[in-house]
Amino acid sequence: MMNTAVVLACDDNYVAYSSCVARRIHSNASTKIPIVVLADCVSDRNRAKALSVCPHIEFVEVGPLLEGKPFSLLGHLTRATYSRLLLAELLSGLDQALYLDSDIAVLGDVAPLAFTKLIAAPVAAAHDLPMYGAHRQIAKRPVTPGRPYFNGGVAVYDLKAVKSEGIFENAQRFSFDHPDRCAYHDQDALDQVLDGRWQVLDWRWNAMSFLTETMPGLPIVRHLTGNKPWSANKTDIEPEIISLWHDDLLDSPWPELFKSASGGIEVKDRWLRTKICEQLPGPRGRSARFKRDIACAYREIERTVGQLATPLL
């Protein structure tokens, strides 16, 4: 069997969420698989708490390798987000790794994805569909015009191929030399280096916070790229996802991290706004028509890529 693992990354700010995700991964897995957490200076106390949530975690310290490197740190992200660029260096004994962000809801079994053999490219990832609808943003992405752009929150890496081609090293160098072109940090750097040479995953492995009401079915991994279910603003997050994270955090050493909802715009209101804007000319109308057609894009991806697992929720 292929030597693989599921990999998460965190610092003290995100260790609670990583441990809850790890527990869901383990409990849903049909085939037990190692769960590695790349830890950027996580305290001993928080490591002990995380292991009480999921004893199957193996921590790998990455702090010394990140120290002193000129990574661009804009917005709310910390240097821990660049940990995935150290995968080949830290996990040299593995053939492959499934990397997952920690702001996700695991609704199914991710083991089939972790054990999937890549055949078309050294990396498999999902299209960043929200980015394609943001015309101003996609124009700034550091890829050749017309090339696809992936979201790095769920990605499978052939570690031997990635290492032999120097993909992570080149991505690090690009992020150092062109921080102005890395608004999405390591994701932009990897997209630049790969420049379209990545294998496409079914959207259900990485269902982002974008017009969730248009999704033609349940995802396997719901990626919470906007508001987080544990924050007070839970706009555009499905009730089932909020409930899942409520239960997970309350059954952890960090129950205080789950905040009560403060309200917000309902998904149905945004849907109605889109329907009205469909008739308008200009950028607003183009954006609305893109949103109208997104369900067709989901189904076409399903048809051409296929599905490896089914959601449990």
Helix content: 25-40%
Look at the structure and give the CATH class. Answer: Alpha Beta
Cα-atom Rg, whole angstroms?
A: 19 Å
Q: What global shape is seen?
A: globular
Which fold does the CATH topology refer to?
A: Spore Coat Polysaccharide Biosynthesis Protein SpsA, Chain A
Largest sheet: 7 strands, mixed
Derived structural class? alpha/beta
> Which CATH architecture?
Alpha-Beta Complex
Quantity of strands, as a count: 9
Number of DSSP helices? 13
Q: What order do the strands of the largest sheet run in, or round the barrel if closed?
A: 3-2-1-4-7-6-8
Parts with pLDDT < 50 across at least 5 consecutive residues? none
CATH homologous superfamily caption: Spore Coat Polysaccharide Biosynthesis Protein SpsA, Chain A
Beta-strand proportion: 5-15%
How many domains? The number is: 1
**Spatial separation of the terminal alpha carbons:** 28 Å
Order of helices and strands: EHEHEHHEEHEHHEHHHEEHHH
Residue-averaged pLDDT? 87
